[in-house]
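Most newcomers find our protein records easier to grasp once they have seen one. Read left to right, the backbone structure tokens trace the chain's path through space. Once this layout is familiar, the rest of the handout is easier to follow. The record below serves as our worked example for the rest of this section:


***
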Amino acid sequence: MNGYFDANATTPLCSEARAALIEAMDHHWQNPSSPYRSAAQVHVRLEQARSNLAGLFQVNPDSVIFNSGATEGNFSVFSYWRGLVARDAKIAVSSIEHPSVLENARQLFGESLVEMPVDESGRVALSAIEDAVAAGATFISLMAANNETGVLQPWHDALEICRQKQIALHVDASQWVGREPLVGLAEADFVTACAHKFGGPKGAGFVLVRNVFSSFAGQRGGSQENDHRAGTENFPAIAAMVTALQTREAQREATNQSWLRGREQFLKTIRAGIPELVFWGDNAPRLANTVSLCLPKGENSRWVRLLDQRGFDVSTGSACATGQAGPSHVLAAMAVSPEQARQTIRVSALATTLESDWQALGEALVAVWQTINEPPTQSQVIEV
């Protein structure tokens, strides 16, 4: 049994990525910028990895910039735009973005930032994007899929609006890549993603940048990544990342079908065994591996603990926000009450999760409900 259901936080290395990582660490560890033959061979492999990744997105290899992950990528995109536009230039981001988008946007743009609201399903309406454009936004940032609810965002429609108005669009695709089709994603001006969400290693990621922004630069220093991002390239991690994404793409359709079947049985089980469940984003398109549900009784931390004791790992929301005071900003943006937010857990399956794993989790949730809902024993009453 595989009881890990927190894939939206991170995933383990898939076997193909692990093999690529070990091969590169053992035989292709040299600095690709060094002048001798063994380093030049690493540089050739690095550029082949860039071409392979570009091929998955159907873009020119020059558009691919390797980095340490989506947090760095998001910061570099906002920093670049901050230096490109006037001090009072407005930008717009959705109110449900990952903290690496929201916090950087707030810090860099302050009062010039427009935060686009979402509806009750957790989806940004086209009218909100149009309102942001009408308010003078020169740049839109909209995640492809929400990390807490799995709800897919209308980035395709946002792209069309931005093209019509000649406005730049950034898409944080951290949860999308490896789970949804890549076609068309790179038409956005900036796309950020990270390897550890789709079976690659932590500390590896990339930015896709349209060639009209050839002056793009992240961190400064050396001339690596064609002057776009300083720092010695971590070729072993890059090789593993590209291999992981190739693997996921080859298996994606079959994996999604398995998720949908498993999720359907999971929902059937818990709906039959637990009354008054609420599912966030239930009527919106969402990632097939994700369920965000509000439980009828008990703090979510208690549910997580009791499920953990039964061998299941689930989350209370975004791992990057764990420990912060107050309820989830995503659920708050959806007009979810603080009480309901404290009763919400997130279930997110791995590509290797079996339908039987979904069923086992459903049964465990029902068992935990029975434990939480049973009347206290005489000894428990005395102890209280």
Remarks:
- The radius of gyration is 22 Å.
- The CA atoms of residues 195 and 241 lie 5 Å apart.
